[in-house]
């Protein structure tokens, strides 16, 4: 009996700690969830199939013969054109480092909500929900630390001792993913017959960032997104996700679920690469669905240029007018503020 009580108390304490770390989604956004069951009935939540993304072994990019390297570059280009997404193995980022960031990330997110919301760590980079959401289709049941790489090299006195190990691991992950992102960007440029040096020159710590994501269990699936459907406003994104799954993308005009592969990193094309490639590479809409019982974690690295960088086309007859990254971001923010939704590249078509 005593052992049973002890175990019960232990489970109750664990549940209490979990509840304390979750953001107050239901309380803060109660008006959105009042008709969640009705809204879910009209939502197209059926996923036609689960798929594995094209798998590319990057070993051939570094250590293969010239014909093997060119075949690898072609596979990267083909996946970016046909899917907008692919996964990579032998990418050079150690499993030990990815496991270390996963543990540090979990420790951070399991801190009490009040502590996360009031923390000065990474210059107040904590985000949760969608403050401007007026309907469920604009709302994300998730929390994140959205950290520019420049902030990783800046220390602050608040919580510095407690999270110093997290900061150090994030620096290592950001450095490794930065190198991988530039290698992939150069391969994509090479596949288009262009020089990829501009990606290394223009993408730096001031605008590239790392995002730590947590998707808590949600009592309102399938009416609520973990992350709303969107495209990424960058050149490319590198994603490390756990085994839970939940990532979905548009393929052949339908939503498909991405089967998790713990040994691979996911790469997806962003809006800027689609514009640069003159729509050869596709920035594909994707989303994250919620899970009623299980939390989900992911880490994303975003390769972005400096704000004044001009996004031109690699082809002479461009589909898009020239624009800077700053102009693109400003337009996206204005559209979201006015309509609740991102419009994106179509704003810049000639």
From TrEMBL:
Catalytic activity: gibberellin A1 + 2-oxoglutarate + O2 = gibberellin A8 + succinate + CO2
Domain Fe2OG dioxygenase: 204-305
Cofactor(s) listed: L-ascorbate
Alphabetical list of InterPro entries matching this protein: DIOX_N, IPNS-like_FE2OG_OXY, IPNS-like_sf, Iron_ascorbate_oxido_reductase, Oxoglu/Fe-dep_dioxygenase_dom
Coiled-coil residue spans: none
Domain of life of the organism encoding this protein: Eukaryota
Enzyme Commission code(s) on record: 1.14.11.13
Pfam families reported for this sequence: 2OG-FeII_Oxy, DIOX_N
EC class name: oxidoreductase
Keyword Transport assigned: no
Keyword check for GTP-binding: no
GO molecular function term, any single one: gibberellin 2-beta-dioxygenase activity
Leader peptide range in chain numbering: none
UniProt cross-references to PROSITE patterns, sorted A to Z: FE2OG_OXY
GO biological process, one term: gibberellin metabolic process
Keywords: Dioxygenase, Iron, Metal-binding, Oxidoreductase
Entry similarity comment: Belongs to the iron/ascorbate-dependent oxidoreductase family. GA2OX subfamily.
Protein name: gibberellin 2beta-dioxygenase
Source organism of this protein record: Apostasia shenzhenica
Gene that this polypeptide is encoded by: GA2OX8
């Amino acid at each position: 009996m005593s052992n049973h009580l002890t175990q019960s108390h232990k489970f109750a304490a664990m549940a209490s700690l979990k509840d304390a770390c979750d953001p107050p989604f239901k309380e803060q956004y109660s008006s959105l969830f009042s008709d969640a069951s009705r809204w879910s009935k009209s939502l197209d939540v059926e996923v036609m199939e689960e798929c594995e993304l094209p798998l590319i072994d990057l070993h051939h990019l570094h250590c293969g013969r010239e014909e093997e390297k060119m075949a690898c570059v072609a596979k990267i280009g083909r996946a970016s054109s046909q899917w907008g997404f692919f996964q990579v193995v032998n990418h050079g980022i150690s499993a030990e480092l990815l496991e270390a960031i996963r543990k540090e990330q979990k420790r951070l997110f399991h801190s009490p909500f009040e502590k996360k919301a009031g923390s000065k760590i990474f210059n107040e980079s904590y985000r949760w929900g969608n403050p401007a959401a007026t309907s469920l289709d604009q709302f994300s049941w998730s929390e994140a630390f959205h950290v520019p790489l420049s902030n990783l090299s800046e220390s602050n006195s608040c919580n510095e001792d407690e999270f110093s190990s997290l900061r150090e691991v994030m620096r290592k992950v950001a450095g490794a993913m930065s190198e991988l992102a530039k290698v992939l960007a150069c391969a994509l440029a090479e596949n288009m017959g262009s020089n990829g040096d501009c990606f290394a020159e223009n993408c730096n710590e001031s605008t590239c960032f790392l995002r730590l994501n947590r998707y808590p269990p949600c009592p309102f699936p399938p009416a609520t997104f973990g992350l709303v459907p969107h495209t990424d406003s960058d050149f490319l994104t590198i994603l490390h996700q756990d085994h839970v799954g939940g990532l979905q993308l548009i393929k052949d005009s339908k939503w498909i679920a991405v089967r998790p592969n713990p040994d691979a990193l996911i790469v997806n094309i962003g809006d800027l690469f689609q514009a640069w490639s003159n729509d050869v590479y596709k920035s594909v809409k994707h989303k994250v669905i919620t899970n009623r019982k299980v939390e989900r974690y992911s880490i994303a690295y975003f390769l972005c240029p400096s704000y004044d960088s001009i996004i031109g086309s690699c082809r002479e007859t461009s589909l898009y007018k020239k624009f800077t990254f700053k102009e693109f971001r400003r337009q996206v923010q204005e559209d979201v503020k006015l309509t609740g939704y991102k419009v994106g590249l179509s704003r810049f078509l000639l």
